[in-house]
Amino acid sequence: MNENSYKIVCENVWKVFGPNPKRIIENWSEYQDMDKVQRLDETGCVVGARQADFKVERGEIYCLMGLSGSGKSTLLRCVNRLHEPTAGTISIDDQDITQLNQNQLREFRRAKTGMVFQHFALLPHRKVIANVAFGLEIQGVSKAERERSALEAIELVGLKGWENSYPYELSGGMQQRVGLARALAPDPEILLMDEAFSALDPLIRRQLQDEFVSLIKQVQKTILFVTHDLNEALRIAGHIAIMKDGAIVQQGRPADIVLHPAPGYVEEFVRDLPKIKFITANDIMESPDPWLQSKDMTLESVRNNMEEARDRFNFLVDENNRVIKIIDYYRLGEIEADPQSPCPPDAYQCRFPLETATTSTFLEELLQLGADSKVPIVINDDQGRVTGIITRETLLTALTSA
Amino acid sequence: MEFPIRIPVGRWADLFVTWLTDHFSTVFDSIKAVVEFILVNISWFFQVIPWPVMLIALTVLAWLVSGRRVGIMTFVCIFLLGALDLWMEGMATMALVATSVLVSVALGLPTGILAAKYKRFDMVLRPILDGMQTIPSFVYLIPAIMFFGIGNVPGILATVIFALPPMVRLTSLGIQQVEHEVVEAGHAFGCTPGQLLFKIQLPLAVPSIMAGVNQTVMMALSMVVVAAMIGAGGLGGKILYSIQRIDLGVGIEAGLGILFIAMVLDRILQGLTQKQQQALIRNER
Questions:
Q1: What is the pTM of this model?
Q2: Nearest to residue A292, comparing CAs of A317, A322, A325, A329?
Q3: How high is the pLDDT of residue B283?
Q4: Which among A106, A124, A186 has CB closest to B279?
Q5: Exposure on the CB side of residue B102, measured as CA atoms within 13 A
Q6: Per-residue pLDDT tens for A234-251?
Q7: A82, A107, A125 member nearest B184 (Cβ)
Q8: Which residues of chain B neighbour A124 with C-beta distances below 8 Å?
Q9: What is the CATH number of the domain that holds A314?
Q10: Domains of chain B
Q11: Cα–Cα distance between B156 and B99 in angstroms, integer?
């Protein structure tokens, strides 16, 4: 993936609170073995975030996950400079935002970022619509225009009809929808979400997560999402960075984190997770090539190939690699056709159904499919072309490691 | 036994005030002119309105802001003020209080905003405010007379010195108490410092600021007798007169007059504050 597909690139970002913070960074080797309290006593400084490197792809949800005090919110606030990073560079669309002056920073925040807060941070003296229109209001957009955009955003988050209520008249879940609408109304490219769903009760939280994920697909935003809830991160994120004591200890796709946790902290974290819910077909599938037979091949060469590989089942594919038929070796003998020429696809017979899945199908579901049929599962890409094969043996191997 | 040293603070203060009056008389004169201008206009307003109109207007206002009970109470209090033959004095006191409060708010609000914004300024300001509130008000009557002569204006300015601190403190407190996350939201959406102040901090500090106004009103009322000592008129003047003549009847009547005005103003302002507070408290549910 080339550099341009990254929306946010953070390199070696530090945030040290306290007097003369640079000295902590320059002499980090002296301080790194101290615990927080000792460091605070000796230097008066607290290290909020350190040596943070991460890249967020355009249009993805990137989660910063860690327990309280791990520095995730600090790091998030460095991205729009609510916290001034002590060192490092943060590039957004190849522009280093740590170099912006106050006016440029304000313009950057207005144009590119929206933010959602843990405790909603709504303005209690304003109606929903005026809250949602706030971002546009301070940009000087006319009342008619900003209210039109605000209404669109309100509708998008499913609060149509509530625009003239006050925040205190709404439930927590609805208030956070207002917070989300407020962030979306100015149509920013990046959403920064600080524990956005953490203050909600579990049922509402789950519902909002689901809605959020589908909403985000419509609006095409790049999202940096802070959470202390691993399950939340795994549900919604494209990539996750796990933080501890200000540093990122591991980053990767949800499945990477669950299946290959970094030893120690992360391992401890993911220990109790049901892995079959995270392993996808993509993680375990084999290359399909040995299993495929072109429909232009002669019957004899099909038979020879299968004999050689000792396969009972193979798949007949068209020129676009789409599966047309299952070939059952035991029933090749029933075909009455010229062995020296390709035989019509309909001649191949198999009493087992064809089971297909996509690369993102989870192991949980693949096991179900595998139990139903002896034929290996065909994994298709989004155009219906074969990209992988999963046999029962593969499934069993995956289960033992899960 | 003799004390080894005598610090002549009194003499210094004396010299300093004399120096000020000598060199800055134009400044004091212009302050006096401004305050006098405000007072004259406000007094005119209170005196030109016939008592039935004022009575009805205050009652309706109290009713709307604080409910029926306060409305009825206001009607009774203001009616009794007239029935005790204290109408003109009462209105003069109202005008004095209104002017003092106006000046206090005009000075206290911006000072409070600055104190909330700049820690250093706040640190310098704190002991000054403490002094303004704790040094007996009689003490600064003397320089007030030296700067402004006797009459209503020095009375008002002495009142302002006494009534200003709660306005400054509660404004500053109100702004500092605005939820940190909401201020962050303002920054995150790209507010200029002015937008942050007027669209977020001040509106959310309104309950605290209103409490400050209420306190200022009460403190201004408590100063009317003291201010009368340097020539401010109204009910305070009446009480001072009764003390000098040991005339219990006049004193009690004028005292009741002040009580009635205090009750009415307090309940109306409390009503205003409570409405704001309820909105915010409900939000924090």
A1: 0.80
A2: A317
A3: 52
A4: A124
A5: 15
A6: 889 999 999 999 999 999
A7: A82
A8: 204, 279-280, 282-283
A9: 3.10.580.10
A10: 9-284 (1.10.3720.10)
A11: 7
